[in-house]
Amino acid sequence: YDRTHNFQMGFVYELPFAKDSSNPVAMVVKNWQVNGIFSAFSGLPFTIAGNNTALNQRAGQQTIDLVGPLRRVGDPGPDEVYYDPTAFAEPGAKWGNTERNQFRGPFNWNLDASVFRTFPFGRYRAEFRVESTNIMNHTQWGNPITGLTNVNFMKIRSLSRDPRRIQLGVRFQF
To answer: Using CA atoms, how far apart are residues 109 and 43, in angstroms rounded to an integer?
Structure first.
């Protein structure tokens, strides 16, 4: 995929509390680790296909005509128009003037995070984990509908990523 802009930042932080202590409070607050991955990226490219059987095209893709200025008119969402649909038209008895992947879907960002608690005993370790994808439960919209005759043309009706998911796990190291 073509992602013009892609920023990824991972982090791991071991909490520094009571590393060498053995009192009851230390048994609760030591051996914790916080992890995460933050991502910010530009939208995926997409093509708006045209429809012209008069060209007797055997292979490839017919594209649509851009007949006006390309303007983003709304924010991503289920009832919002993303690009102005009046800027597009069927090409008629000719090839369309737009290119493959000329248009871009919406920018998205995401944060995945986890918390680990380690329980060392001798040379073995048990690790309790809580991991979450899309921890902020931020809606991440996909590309708009590109069928010119569809009533939802240029509306975004799909997600590019799942909502928040949380999983619990135990890891035993020997």
So the answer is: 10
Give the span between the Cα atoms of 96 and 91, in whole angstroms. 5
Say if CB 22 and CB 31 are below 8 A apart.
no
Q: Which backbone phi and psi does 24 adopt, to 5 degrees?
A: -60, -35
Sign of CA dihedral 143, 147, 153, 154: positive
User: Are 61 and 53 spatial neighbours (Cβ–Cβ below 8 Å)?
Assistant: no
CA pair distance 143, 106, nearest whole angstrom: 7
CB atoms < 10 A from the CB of 110, how many?
18
Q: How many CA atoms lie within 13 A of 135 on its CB side?
A: 14
d(CA 28, CA 112): 25
Phi, psi (rounded to 5 degrees) for 85: -70, -20
Tell me: the pLDDT tens digits for 10-69? Answer: 999 999 888 788 888 888 888 999 999 999 999 999 999 877 666 666 666 788 999 999
Q: Is the pTM of this model over 0.90?
A: no
